[in-house]
Task: structure prediction
Amino acid sequence: MRVRNSTLAIFLASEVVVTLIGALAYSEERSYPGNGAMLGAIILALPLLLEMAGWFRMPIYMHVWASLAVGLHTFGLVWELYDTVWWWDELTHVISSSIVSMIAALGLFLFDAHSLKIKVPRCAYPMMIMAFSIFIGVVWEIAEFTGDLLASTGMQYSLSDTLSDCYVDVLGGLTSSLLWVLWLWKDPNGELADSAQRPLIDLFDKAF
Result:
């Protein structure tokens, strides 16, 4: 399937930036931020691969949103802004949790649009988006704690830092909920409805 020019442009720009930042970290023999950058590059490639396969076309504003989340996180790791700028962690958590929540909202929207058996009431979206945001936030904190125990990554500074991250994740979910209620569910440009392509729609029909 032909990839949209806008998708390709966002992918190339974000991949170049993240990869160069990661290469800088590796050149300074700092494997942890370098590995974080490479993981971010892989994550940013997933929507492009799905679009190339003809399964899923993520809305452009979500591409930009995801690139911003990965870029800020990578930038903060390499330049140690998580240690020197007190609000950097909160900023990245809000943006990351909001894009993850919005992808969950898109999944609900597609279930509602293409499944004959599963229907999601409009009024349930904000609650489900918030619940998913909290769930992913907790899973992330568990992953950080596990990384600290097994690899001494030092991602968790204190109990108050962990709880602060959870509070900010809730704020990210609330942001996505408000955007959904105020604008996105109307799908003014049809990007949400057009995101699922025929193979994915056929899978919905068979499975749900």
About this structure: The longest helix spans residues 88-114. The helical segments are 5-27, 31-52, 60-78, 81-84, 88-114, 125-151, 159-182, 198-207.
